[in-house]
Automatic annotation (TrEMBL):
Domain of life (superkingdom): Eukaryota
Entry keyword annotation includes Transcription: no
Name of this chain's protein: WD domain
Gene Ontology CC entries for this record: ribosome
WD repeat coordinates: 13-57
Family matches, as InterPro entries: WD40/YVTN_repeat-like_dom_sf, WD40_repeat_CS, WD40_repeat_dom_sf, WD40_rpt
SUPFAM superfamilies from the UniProt entry: WD40 repeat-like
Protein's organism: Trypanosoma brucei equiperdum
Length: 433
């Protein structure tokens, strides 16, 4: 499938000096135009996608170590433990900035040194020109380390997050053995109408996602469906579905080889393998009533039905799902777009010239109000509105349900931001058959 003008990114962000390993958009819509990215040298950048420039960058590991001199990119010796595995926003919808001139952004970074850091950045002046080449003492004026969480796994499973209330996030932290997952609460505390004193971070519970009947090996990936359900992919090829209370809902042996990634969204479960296989399951929920001496109770049963499967001989780097669109980043440098319902490829995007390491897709409420989500064909379709996505959707938003926004990060040091029309691409792909 050939590339065309419509298949090019909206724009590309190129300030990283090493492979970009992860990127994240704010799923709550508090900062709909912000993006976080992290690279293998340990640099994290906060981007304004409307301005298309970095507002801020720093080196989490060196900041924690308390570097005593100004450090610029390329002037330090990066170690293997400095690399960034995961970044994510912690955007509390009830949080209020101290003043109109100050914006506070909470987020976390997971590095290869088995540490997860929770931060707060205070952006005092977007027009100050602080673009983020500096990563030393100047950074400390703007960024504050709030908490550190040990990640007791020697593998490289990213720690996912999900918003469970307007003032609380959940983090799922993998352990090295027995499929143990720890759930950490990150809560906004001591909030007044004008300020927030800080965060409370604590481990609320731990449980084995592998259960007692299967030897699953290392946890490779964890995915939240919502604040009460998670999916876990294992080295053994097993994939388990669990409640965040610790109850195992289902477990299957998806592959004979390692299950690398999983995404659980609604009634769809995507799983990828180390051999380049991609499977899509339908999650079927049913209820049954049980009776015993203590009385009756309603039990929810979950089963998995394989819907479709494809194999990419060059291997898979990452996968993301939003409604009808599956985006797969491949080791052959391409992004493949699949129809979630049929498993058919509707487009192949060929912008990156290295492995695609990460794909971030915002939910509808963010994509509908993001000011950066326009293209040259309809340059004014997202004019007006506010950065926050708390308001009602406009008529244009309702008509644009087939339009998706996402970001891709690759080994070519670039982050690309895309806008695709699902209905148009589906029609074009049928015409080429």
């Amino acid at each position: 499938m050939s590339s065309s003008r419509a298949h090019q990114p909206l724009f590309v962000l190129k300030q990283h000096c090493s492979a970009v390993s992860t990127c994240a958009l704010d799923g709550q819509g508090v900062f709909a135009n912000f993006l976080l990215s992290g690279d293998v040298d340990g640099i994290v950048r906060l981007w304004d996608l409307e301005l298309r420039e970095a507002l801020f960058s720093f080196h989490p590991v060196q900041t924690v170590r308390g570097s005593t001199k100004m450090v610029t990119e390329g002037s330090f010796s990066s170690s293997a433990g400095d690399g960034v595995l995961q970044v994510g926003f912690l955007s509390f919808t009830e949080a209020v900035a101290d003043s109109a001139e100050t914006t506070e952004v909470w987020f976390y970074t997971q590095c290869r040194n088995q540490q997860l850091y929770v931060w707060k950045i205070r952006l005092c002046d977007f027009d100050s020109g602080f673009g983020g080449e500096e990563c030393g003492l100047e950074t400390e004026k703007f960024v504050e380390l709030l908490h550190t969480i040990d990640v007791p796994q020697h593998g490289f499973c990213p720690v996912p997050s999900v918003c469970s209330s307007p003032t609380k996030f959940l983090l799922a932290v993998p352990h090295d053995s027995n499929g143990i997952v720890s759930l950490w609460d990150v809560c906004l505390i001591s909030r007044t109408p004008l300020s927030c004193e800080g965060l409370k971070v604590n481990c609320s519970r731990s449980f084995s996602a592998a259960g007692t009947l299967a030897k699953c090996g290392t946890i490779m990936c964890i995915s939240f469906r919502d604040s009460t359900h998670i999916a876990v992919a294992f080295e053994s090829g097993n994939v388990s579905l669990n409640s965040t209370c610790g109850l195992q809902l289902a477990i299957i042996r998806a592959f004979a080889e390692t299950a690398v990634a999983c995404v659980w969204s609604g009634a769809a479960l995507l799983v990828t393998s180390a051999e380049g296989r991609l499977q899509c399951y339908t999650v079927v929920e049913s209820t049954a009533e049980t009776r015993d001496d203590a009385g009756s109770a309603t039990v929810t049963n979950i089963s998995l039905v394989l819907r479709w499967e494809v194999t990419l001989s060059k291997g898979l780097g990452c996968v993301a799902l939003q409604r009808h669109l599956v985006v797969v980043g491949s080791w052959d440098h391409t992004l493949r777009l699949f129809d979630e319902g049929s498993g058919r490829v509707i487009s192949i995007l060929t912008f990156h010239n290295s492995t695609v390491n990460s794909v971030a897709m915002p939910p509808d409420k963010v994509a509908g109000c993001a000011l950066f989500g326009y293209d040259v064909r309809r340059p004014r379709c997202c004019d007006g509105g506010t950065v926050s996505c708390s308001g009602k959707q406009s008529t244009n938003d309702q008509k644009d349900k087939d339009v998706y926004l996402f970001a891709s990060a690759g080994g070519d040091y670039a982050v690309a931001v895309w806008r695709v029309d699902f209905k148009t691409l589906t029609a074009l792909s049928r015409d080429t058959l």
